[in-house]
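Quick check before the chapter quiz. The format below is the same one you will see on the exam, so make sure you can read both the input and the output lines.
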Amino acid sequence: MDTVPDVLRAQLAAAAAAHTPYEELEQGIRGKVSGSLYRQALLLHSFRERARYDTEFHGSSMGLVDEQDYYNQMIEWLRQSLSLYPHQLSDVVAGRLRISPFDYYSSMLVEVIRSDSAYDSLPNWTAADCKRVIGVGRNEYINMMNEYRSKGWLAKQRRKTTVALLPTHPCTDEIQPEWRVCGVTVREDELLTLEDDIAHLVLHLAKQPNSSASISEIGIPAAKALYRLGLVWLDVPVSLQDRIRILPLHNFVMNKDCSGEDRYEMLLYELLVSHDQRSTAEQLAHILGAPRDMVQRAIALYLRLGFASKIDTSEEDNADKDDEDNPALPHPRRIGLLFDSQLPGILMMGNLSNALKAHAITLFEAGKLSDESMEPFLTELSQLPTNPEHADPDDASYLYACALRSALVTLRHNSACTTEGSDGGVDILRVDSLHALGELRKHRVLSHQYSILMSLSPLDPKVWPVATPSSVVHFGPVTAGMHEPWLKLWLYQQCGFGPMSWVYPRGTVLRRLPASLRNVPHCLMHPWGEHQSAHPTGVMLMQLNEALVDGPVAVTMTLADLAGGR
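Here is the expected output.
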């Protein structure tokens, strides 16, 4: 399949998704691919979708009459692709085949280490789940890799040398009482080797419906003991009426994404930015146009990783329950504050608190911080000095954070900033994450959740502004051209007032700055297509000439200098 042209590969994928028999393919496609190659495409599609074995389809169409052979091939393909463990197939993979998440990720890490690959080769979600199951994160992996490299050539050829570097038991800290434990297939001779209390628990589970029980029923210590021995697999129940809140992504691993190749992993990112604590899993599936079971699986993974928690509906007031029971009632909408990747970058790289940097990771990866999660974020922002004399006035992270704090405090639950039917809340949204949803789903999310959108200024000039549905009012740039210096210069001219400004065409070589800038400590430099930035005038001449090599530049006196009469 690697040598198949992209257009033909897309046609095969579409036919595979529709389960089209080879004999019913278009003549042009059948002339280019053989029956065996098409069966390979069908098999690859089933693996990517983590599809369950279907006797009629997979057996007759693909010639895989053995169910176990099908699942073994799927696990091997997923492992080589460094994909997430198929938790939705745990009843077969872990229950019958006895391939637990711990076995799956251990085998994956062995191959990654032996191939001398960097930790960054693991995709984000795979690395996060691997860390949860095995306890191997970036630092642990680096230590293991250094120890492996210190071995002799002969020792490296033995697989057991690498296996010995890994933990011997899975982590159990993440187990929650509301989850369920499900028994695996245990042979009689294996049962005889178990301790009496463990054997009793295994037999007790076997007598339960579907060989499963709530962890709160058997107790967390018993569940952990069974899980460490690989005698159970964990089920995280999620109903279509469940609602979740996204927690700070403290344990998220920032390696690489799946580049759009895995539909399930793409949904994991899309659900982060489109989730709404007031919407159920079923409503989110409708908004995203995604299969309901896939949304349930995504939410279950969030719960496993500790990235989300369920909202206890028993704590909701009667009004919320009435809204939930009557879908005809209008959904309360709020203000959306749009930002680009510059905001989390500034918060992470600036001289700010570690807690703010943790929120920055959530803003970047989740692409959203909802109003319900805003208080801890505002608490951290409030720890910043409010008096500029106590901070570096040239520190962009400090200035940006102070401006953000002021905007949030002003807009949240302010009757002057809300519209009819609004709950007064403010969500922070990353523009790039919204664009990744596609136009249709982006419009559904915006029209369902927001009445007003406001863009933080300045947005990255390379980020295309958000086109909003007619039901949403947008205060911000409507075209990419509004990021250019021309708009500010036009406004200065129309108002008859503004800071002194100069525009230099590309290729200009300056030998001195204008006389008006010689006694000014700072001025603003705005290259076309780039961010505006402040520079000390004492060193700006060299920086300005360097920027003019690539394009035109606008130079503007700062408003502070203008107000000071300089």
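If your answer matched, good. The chain has 28 helices and 14 strands.
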